[in-house]
Amino acid sequence: MERLDKIISQSLNISRSDAKEYIKSGLVTVNGTAVKSANEKADAQKDKIECDGKAVCYSKFVYIMMNKPKGIISASQGGEKTVVDILPDSMKRKNLFPAGRLDKDTTGFVLITDDGDFAHRILSPKNHIPKTYTAVLDKPFDSDVIDAFKNGLSLKNDKCLPAQLTPLNSEYTEAQVIIRQGMYHQIKRMFAKFGITVIELKRTAMGRLPLDLSLGEGECRYLNDEEIKMVENK
Ligand code: URA
Fold it and tell me: Which CB contacts under 8 angstroms, 24+ apart, belong to 77-86?
């Protein structure tokens, strides 16, 4: 059960005080009856909640897949344009943040949510959730690099978990990289150890869920329950 003003403000993307006004004016009905007290609680899964005759869609948390373009930072605030800033207005709501960071010049799958526990579960290195990337490199790598990734590289004071490196072209200048943690510039630093520069980097999957290829850069969509589980590798 959630407070009615919370349900209305989140689902209509309006302030709590505006939601209270709507409720006081009798526009909001629960199971066909106008409810004039904002303190009233309702069960958004079971109760039929309407505002001005239109069904209200409410979910406690949202999970959004975005295909991040270059030049946008994965943060919820900052001096520069963020992935949260470029969400369509209809998807904006309070407390959204990206679960995990991509560099400003990295593209691909960013998961934006307001569910802190979920974000913690998918980001904790303890849970070993794989994050899959494709990388374009300035020079080829060889089997020594593949083995070093597999054995867990040391980067300054950080020890990387075993990572999987697979060539995607015969020149060995494009690769799929799977890592299970999210250290700062991790993939770029892993290649830099071998004198290789990452020219392009794109995240293509989180857990078992691939980036939806129908999403153009900057586009996004909600995940369904099945897809949310796939991110957790379930
Ligand atoms: N590794 C990097 O170097 N950059 C990213 O954006 C993600 C992983």
Answer: 80/104, 83/110, 83/112, 84/112, 86/218
